[in-house]
Write a structure and sequence with these properties.
ATP-binding, mainly alpha, 14 helices, binds tryptophanyl-5'AMP, three-stranded parallel beta sheet, globular, single chain
Length: about 325
């Protein structure tokens, strides 16, 4: 089984990325052959500078490995190291109706947020479909915000199979974990870089503690009173890091009253900080040897290209682009 996912190097990784994609990706890497990549072509649609893109690409590789990606077992590569993906994106574009792309939320959301409506932003889902189909992927672990893109991918694969022969492409399945499909941000909206409501995976302890204390959404229930459990962002986030018994104890303390939000925030921060301790320590160690990261990416690219070449040869032949 081929498991594949991609993350954009568009800023610091946050716990939404972690629980939506990284944690399942790391958990699944022993279940089959894992191909994980850094979607730098995609990030170009919103990046401000070449330097930032390059730096974020390296940091994402470092962070992903620190979170448990095993480069001995899994293939980690940078999207642009396999430029063949653009050819497949073009081929898929020839069967991709405009209406399919026009319906995609991500484009509409980005434009509503003030991004320039360029072609690359519009055609983003066709490139994403190519990312997935180029490696004959079976399973794609992602957060819920990518569900529609996976549907577009299946749709395009189906259209290609109808036009050029059944079995040309595998139809991939999205893997969206129910309880972490949408990790809430500190303000209760979906956690997202563009909402400025993220809790990063890595960072300095003091500013992060301050951020949790200041930014997390709570109400003004007095200390002695019972506090609402339904819809509590603090509880939803705590649940990600705490064991079931600890989580239940915090729920009970909410219902009983007599404990202030300050105490709950402190407990949340401690659980979060402990949860990522092993990843933080691993990251510190890896930082001593940056050449190891580039080496992993180079090896990953070579392996990914090998696989991509097989699929692309098959596709070129099927659509009439090959002449041998
Ligand atoms: P990106 O970089 O925005 O996000 C990376 C992964 O994190 C998930 N995610 C979340 N999950 C739960 N709750 C949240 N609040 C949250 N925020 C982000 C995303 O769903 C995603 O799984 N288009 C992709 C990158 C991509 C890709 C691919 C993914 C390009 N090609 C091929 C899979 C397969 C994106 O922008 O992810």
């Amino acid at each position: 089984m081929r498991i594949l996912t991609g993350l954009q190097p568009s800023g610091k990784l946050h716990i939404g990325n972690y629980f939506g994609a990284i944690e399942p990706a790391v958990r699944l890497q022993t279940q089959g052959e894992a191909f994980y990549f850094i979607a730098n072509y995609h990030a170009m649609t919103t990046m401000e500078s070449a330097e930032a893109l390059q730096e974020n690409t390296f940091n994402l590789a470092l962070d992903f490995i620190s979170c448990g990606l095993d480069p001995e077992h899994s293939v980690l590569f940078v999207q642009s190291a396999v430029p063949e993906v653009n050819e497949l994106a073009w081929i898929l574009s020839t069967v991709c109706p405009m209406g399919l792309l026009e319906r995609c939320h991500s484009y509409k959301d980005k434009v509503a947020k003030g991004f320039q409506p360029q072609h690359a932003l519009f055609a983003y889902p066709a490139l994403m479909a190519a990312d997935i189909l180029l490696y004959d992927s079976d399973l794609v672990p992602v957060g819920k915000d990518q569900k529609q893109h996976l549907e577009v991918t299946r749709d395009l694969a189906g259209k290609m199979n109808d036009a050029f022969g059944e079995g040309l492409f595998k139809l991939p399945e999205a893997l969206i974990a129910e309880n972490t499909a949408v990790v809430p941000g500190l303000d209760g909206q979906k956690m997202s870089k563009s909402y400025g409501n993220t809790l990063p995976i890595f960072g300095e302890e003091k500013p992060l503690l301050k951020m949790v204390n200041k930014k997390i959404l709570t109400d003004s229930t007095p200390l002695e009173d019972p506090k609402p459990v339904e819809g509590s962002v603090l509880l939803q986030l705590y649940r990600l890091f705490a064991g079931e018994a600890e989580y239940q104890a915090m729920v009970d303390a909410h219902l009983a009253g007599g404990v202030g939000y300050g105490t709950f925030k402190k407990q949340l921060f401690e659980a979060y900080w402990e949860y990522f301790r092993p990843a933080r320590e691993c990251r510190e160690a890896l930082l001593q040897d940056p050449a190891h990261i580039t080496d992993v990416l180079d090896k990953g690219a070579a392996r990914a290209r090998e696989e991509a070449a097989k699929v692309l040869t098959r596709v070129r032949r099927a659509v009439g682009l090959g002449w041998h």
